[in-house]
Amino acid sequence: MSSLRNKSLGCSPGSGATPVDGIPGAWLAERPIPGVQVIDPASAAVALSVGAQPGECVLDMAAAPGGKTALLASAVAEDGTVVAADLHARRVRTAAR
After folding, report:
1. Could you tell me the pTM of the whole model?
2. Of 15, 18, 39, 59, which sits 20 to 30 A from 9 (CA to CA)?
3. 94 secondary structure, DSSP code
4. Mean pLDDT of successive 10-residue segments in the chain (97 residues)?
5. DSSP-derived secondary structure for 52-85
6. What is the separation of C-alpha 55 from the centre of its chain, rounded to a whole number of angstroms?
7. In Å, what is the CA distance from 78 to each residue of 54, 72, 73?
8. Under 8 Å CB-to-CB from 86, ≥6 apart: which residues?
9. Given the DSSP bridges, would you call strands 57-60 and 81-84 parallel, antiparallel or unpaired?
10. Which residue, 95, 51, 96, is CA-closest to 75?
11. Of 80, 81, 83, residue with least CA distance to 55
């Protein structure tokens, strides 16, 4: 996750985004920012609190719409695995897009 926190994705004071209190590296965007995936702050907090490390296997049982899953996948890197599931098929179809 440190690699995500260290990347500048166009989020900085004056960019139309403000830092989210209590979630390091998270910004609240007032408008779309190219190259930035929008993730609900609560989902980001859950994904970051897992503390997933490269090479680990993580199970996300409430995966749709996919923001938390994307953060977890970035954390476990290419050596790791994220198994994503959700109770609602419609939400899984949306996440697959």
Report:
1. 0.66
2. 59
3. H
4. 42 67 73 74 87 95 88 92 88 66
5. --TT-EEEETT-TTSHHHHHHHHHHTTTSEEEE-
6. 18
7. 8, 11, 8
8. 61, 62, 63, 64, 92, 95
9. parallel
10. 51
11. 80
